[in-house]
Write a structure and sequence with these properties.
This protein is an alpha/beta fold and 331 residues long. It contains 13 helices and ten strands. Strands 1-2-3-4-5-6-9-10 form an eight-stranded parallel barrel, surrounded by four helices.
Length: 331
Amino acid sequence: MIIHHLKKYIELIIFIILALLVFWLYKADFGQGKNPVFGVTFSQEYAVSLSADWHKMLTDILDELKVKEFRLIAYWDLLESFKDNYDFSDLDWQINEVAKRDGKIILAVGQRVPRWPECHWPAWIYQLSLEERQVKIESMIKEVVLRYKGNPAITAWQVDNEPFLSTFGECPKLTKEDYKKEVALVRSLESRPVIVTESGELSTWLNGGRIADSLGTSIYRITWNKWFGYFYYPLPPAGYYLKAELIKKITGIKSIFVSELQMEPWLGMGVLQTPIEEQMKSMNLNQFNKNVIYAKATGLSPIYTWGVEWWYWLKEQGDPSLWEASKKLFP
């Protein structure tokens, strides 16, 4: 009888300890006393898909929001729409506009870069064999890096986007060997840091941590899929901080930051095909503010927000609430 009661007490104590641990994880704020730097990812292709003037959009992001930290994207289908004929005019313009205002840039380059479908391939690439495609991919990366080599506005190269996440995007599987070759190519051409991005929720970060000079992670709070509808990630902010500290210890990487903080809705269809009321189910002013608080509590910095094009589009539809709220992030 005594042993039975003792066992019950031990079980109760373990339960209380676990409950307190869970409570601490959800309440812990590793960003207290810190002032993280906020930036944005800007996508020319996404802006165009919203029927927006992407030149004016970027100018307003620079001059109205006063953003200084950017992640820009070298889209292959825009750079080499005709084989062996490169056109850098659009990307030159973006980089020059940011540089004129003393902004800093992470430049994403590779076959797989931010925004659906991730692989933004020129149409002619499908006429080539797999081996020929890889040669052209490496050739494109080389062209981009050499074009902007030494440009003082560029602080780092992001090689591909979430290259080890095979469950998202319309991309062929990228082998670790081919990816390492791409990273090695960039390092052979330029001395600035190489960034590898990983999913914050669907990855261990070990691959990126072992390859990168700096690791970028995504933070998503509300997603949507056709099987379950909207899904709320139950992870506490402490999970990202503790995971980052563990990966630093295991891999030796020094820098881990937020490369993609969800600040726009996750939708089953495109923005223009979805009623605004539906869009507001996964992103609105209240959720916007909650995501900022959540990201700060991870203790990671800088934090690159994801969705500035959507804030602009929403403003053009008559709702400037998120555009105005974002001004507090970029003092």
